[in-house]
Design goal:
- 37% of the residues lie in helices and 19% in strands.
- Helix 4 (131-146) runs parallel beside helix 5 (167-178), helix 6 (198-205) packs parallel to helix 9 (237-251) and helix 10 (269-279) packs parallel to helix 11 (304-316).
- It has two domains: 5-59, DNA polymerase, domain 1 (Orthogonal Bundle); 66-347, TIM Barrel, CATH 3.20.20.70.
- The chain has twelve helices and twelve strands.
- The protein has 348 residues and is of the alpha/beta class.
Amino acid sequence: MKPIIYDYTLERLRDWMKENGEPAFRADQLFDWLYAKRVERFEDMTNLPKGLREKLDDQFRFAALHEITRLESKDGTVKFLFGLHDNHAIETVIMRHNYGNSVCVTTQVGCRIGCTFCASTLGGLKRNLTAGEIVAQVVTAQKMLDRIGERVSSIVIMGSGEPFENYEETMTFLRIMIHEKGLNIGQRHITVSTSGIVPNIYRFADEDTQINLAISIHAPNDELRSKLMPVNRRYPFADVMEACRYYLEKTGRRITFEYALIGNVNDRPEHAQQLAEVLKGMLCHVNLIPVNHVPERKYVRTSRDDIFEFHRILVRNGINATIRREQGHDIAAACGQLRAKHMDSMAR
């Protein structure tokens, strides 16, 4: 198939223009049409020569996604189920906050990490997304917000999949998002989350960006983490923490540790105390996430009292921690839930 126009950074578009006998500034005009004006057809790019528009139309495609389902929550959360050219489906979520609109994007179709409490891993990994398929999620969200005069103010790469196993495409996506001629999202308003792919934590530390890093840990020790996250057998907890220390030393930027609380599994006071001891002295923040019930899994939510007790133990030990506010509960907004329902209906 023809490549998606959103796959190309501005620098790559300038190279393409030169290779096709066009001045480099045409790439800047094209970029403006894509991300500032957000048009959907080359023929509408009226300041580009007709011949160039025809050439672009012949060599690239716009249609990266088509909307299958859109669900809107009472709290303003919007969840999209998008279809891809090969009949796979992915999810994207717009979350409304008092500080602006955040978009949660997906980087893979499915996931192979295998976290035992997550719907994203059901069915395994199908394929990586291209940078353009990730970009298109944000552009589509922004087009929806355009209708009400609002904009995407932040991005979290926390949807289905492991972004650090699709590293090159994820970084290309990020470069397009932060470019001043693109959507111009502030780097400190973007967070990428990984389950702990150690080599690429080091690599990301060396990228010299201001983009935030979040690490999913979900347990304070190797034994429990391996039960919940099979990836821990490949990248043990101690190696993950060592990579995090390198990141902190190299960047001076705080790390967020994501910890999904699962009833009577990893939410006991002794787990909180052990986690506090592991993280003591690190520039970090712990985001406590009451686990969403997934019908295919047997885990239950931690009780409200136990959530607050876990939080109190961390804070008492000097660990900065918050409890994530739940959004979109009434529309199955947790990663993979809507896609899992869609896969089930397609299989019938």
